Please model this.
Amino acid sequence: MRKNGGTDTLEVAKYTSGAGWGSTLDSSTGTVTANTEYTIRGWVRQKAVYAKLDGQNVDFTYNSSTFFGAGKVGCVTTVANTTFDDFTYLRATPHDPACPGWNTTGDVTLDTGNGKLTVTGNTYGGAAVSQWAGDDDYMAEADIDLNSGALAHLIIRYLDPDNWMAAEIRANGSVRLVKCLDGRETNVASDTYTPAGTVNVRIKASGTTYTLWVDGTQEISTTDGDIPWGTVALSGRSPKFSNVKVGYDNNSDGDIADGDILDSPRHSHCE
Model:
């Protein structure tokens, strides 16, 4: 998003490294006076950008045909003596009272009817995040029903919406350890599992080592050092989670059923 001083317009354009600014994707025209302070506000969600120049009748919404993907937020100028101040970047994480101890991000809602924590949200980027403090050596487990959806994520190290490590199951029988680093999602390791109405997914993070089980069978064991710690989150395309547990593998036997579930105030067991 940029303010074009030559034409007094607020614009959204694409910048490609090595190629510079591309053509204007959308814009709104107003009056911009030199040596005057203005506030530019922008909202980005999935495929849309909304921009507004406060104090002027300047605003627009640009709808893209594809997701914007990974990137960073900041300020840049090609005009000498331009000054930026009061720069603020926010991600909303409202508390969701459906299950105590959890927040929601993005277009996700929670429901706890019939003994299940249902995470509903078909828009990329949403998650239900545990308020439990992060750690570098622990396990997370959940019974997951894809609920006619395509995939579910049991996130073991959640730092923010752009940085996390997760166990992913898909309706086609694929099980993966996936990583999102600086907003870019990649596959760390993969295998297959036997789909069923509900499957038990368990993942352990110990230092740089990750071990992943589906229905008690170890499917993945690998190392990755990019996400050093984090908390637990649940996401996907409308899956149902039940018997969600977070704890320590005190007996080194690959489960958290032997009295090592986290106690309050770091309790993260929701049914």
User: Anything to note?
Assistant: Residues 102-247 form a domain with the Jelly Rolls fold (CATH 2.60.120.560).
